[in-house]
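Work Package 3 (structural annotation) set out to generate three-dimensional models for the target panel prioritized at the project kickoff. During this period the team completed the workflow that converts sequence records into discrete structure tokens, so that structures can be stored uniformly alongside our sequence database. As a representative example, we reproduce one entry of 385 residues exactly as it appears in the project archive.
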Amino acid sequence: MRAKSPIVNAIPETFAVGAIKGSVAFDQLKIKSIKHILTYDNLAHAIVDLLVGKIDAIAAPVPIVTRLSQESGIEDKIRVISPPIAEVKRAIAVRKDNLQLSQKLNQAIEVFVGQPEYLRIYVKWYGTPTPFWTVNRVIILIGIAVFLIIGLIVAWRYYSITGLNRKLMHSIAERKLAEESLRSNEELYRSLFDHMLNGFAYCRMIFSEDQPRDFIYLAVNDAFTELTGLKDVVGKKGSEVIPAIRESNPELLEICGRVALSGNPERFETYVTALRMWFSVSVYSPTKEHFVTVFDVITDHKAREQEIERLNKLYATLSGINKAVFRAESRNELFHEICRTTAEHAGFNVVWIGWYDRESHEVKPVGRSWGRTGLSRQHQSICRQ
């Protein structure tokens, strides 16, 4: 269509469209039900009618129209509508398993593309390729570049002076705020550190061949001393503060060493033999080969748990014995059920009932049962004897 015509993405119904009679384009226009179709014997007459306004558009192969417009010097007066009304593709089809023929064709095409005959055919259908960098485009580009450079120099001069002063004042204000904020944060963290109820210890792990061997206390809070009773530990090794800790609590070194290397926090409960205390410990690593422990003493809590567990076992045992009294049909069955219930609920390895014979003055076993863990055959034989 004409270059000055309004931009459209499809052919409007009111357009008068020209096409070569009997061509593929003519058939496509009929398929699309274009009402105003004018037929021509050659494309040159159609282009002339397009320029004078007799028709609004031409339906023809783009390469041919492009070549004719370039040869006539009117390529700037014609514009291609996108998308096209149809695409006709031609190719050489080769069976998928015929790799030898496919390779020969590809090699022949590569050789042909570099020969003058290919260029002659290309020019025949598409016209002489127009270089992108024309004189007008180069001049426009140079003008834009010069204008931008001058504008940037002026803007840089202005903003460099005003911006420098603004940054200087802003930097001074930020520094004052940062110093005040740092001082306030230090006071806050120091207050939290000193007054937190949980014990806190910041340590550096000592490794030997990637295995944790010991650690050094770098900082502790007041609660650490109150909970553990350990004093003046900063700067000392863990083995100095708690002798034999590596032998009595190897899991402490293993867990803290793992956290210090991996950075993954962990939480666990442990009994420190040297202190005779149960601890609930949370450990994390602020930096590699260092770790922080936040802990609380749970010895009383553990004692209550054990007492509750003991009472639960006692209740379950008594309840089972009561049921056995009502259900047993004989004395032997009663004694056996009492032994089984006691071993099962109270957690004993072996339970037995002895009957004292007044005549022989002997205690004869009348009931026995093995616990859940069981006994070896040797121990069972001894128990029977």
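The CA atoms of residues 117 and 154 lie 55 Å apart.
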